[in-house]
């Protein structure tokens, strides 16, 4: 066990409450000393659960700025609505509290630049809590790429392909922020789950960067039909015009020549997938059929034989399992998205305790988040390419 970290949580909706109740309280070095939400019932319910666990009774707040005045507070976990993430993160950094910020897309480039400037001025630690960077398959494929098993990486794909029709349509009842975004915006609104692992493989901000993107959105029909069938009594929502296209494709080109295809697909009936795909000159990985194809793999000599190998990922575990997951499996995988949540949280706490750089830093955060603001612009311009800023100001080169 290391030094205790006194943590506060802002935002106790579905995500924030779930993390506290089932995942983060497993960490032996963390004490949750404060809770904050604009809805009093959420704070009271989460505090009750912590008390039943035998934890220290947390202080309760409705205004996070008051909470930041607590001298004993070391760090803050932000789980509030997307549009509040950056503002809250800046206030936390100015108050000298280390920040763990949940994921989402940016609303403007100005928002991203201000985050970078605040971090560089305050030097306060900030971790972007992109759990998919810690996925078992994602880390195994990262290891394979780093060891040259896949050859030179040429193209990657990823998606947020998740049927969210119920969550969005009942957003008012659930007090969930997604609904307003789907009414008013048309963009790649949730890019980081798919982009994070790809960015690590392509060394984005560390010898490579994203240069341009072009986005196209389909028409918006899925929510309209769902509401007609499942919520016909809601006359307001039935007559609402949704701006968000059902399927959004975003193509990105990188400085080192690779391409990335991101797909948002959340308002049509479908199975869950992040569509993680990596193609190199010696082989490829595909999430959707859980398969790896290698040039020199005797089990798949040609593309016809390869079809017989679909679902073969487990065959590569022994040789290419990432060391982080090898140790994790021995110690016992925790709850939370297949164990990813606990890993990203543990790295954040470790960074605070050791004073080491955060593995998913502010430059990662703004680069990945900026895709939302840029895709919105590209879609509005009919798919016109737009430039992706260099938020490192040239530091990515070295």
From TrEMBL:
Protein family according to the UniProt entry: Belongs to the Gfo/Idh/MocA family. Glycosyl hydrolase 109 subfamily.
Residue ranges constituting the Gfo/Idh/MocA-like oxidoreductase N-terminal domain according to the UniProt record: 6-127
Organism of this sequence: Oribacterium parvum ACB1
Keyword tRNA processing attributed: no
Cofactor: NAD(+)
Any matching Pfam family: GFO_IDH_MocA
Record-linked InterPro entries: Gfo/Idh/MocA-like_OxRdtase_N, Gfo/Idh/MocA_oxidrdct_glycsds, Glyco_hydro_109_C, NAD(P)-bd_dom_sf
Domain Glycosyl hydrolase 109 C-terminal: 139-307
Keywords: Glycosidase, Hydrolase, NAD
Protein name from the UniProt record: Uncharacterized protein
Keyword NAD found: yes
GO molecular function: hydrolase activity, acting on glycosyl bonds; nucleotide binding
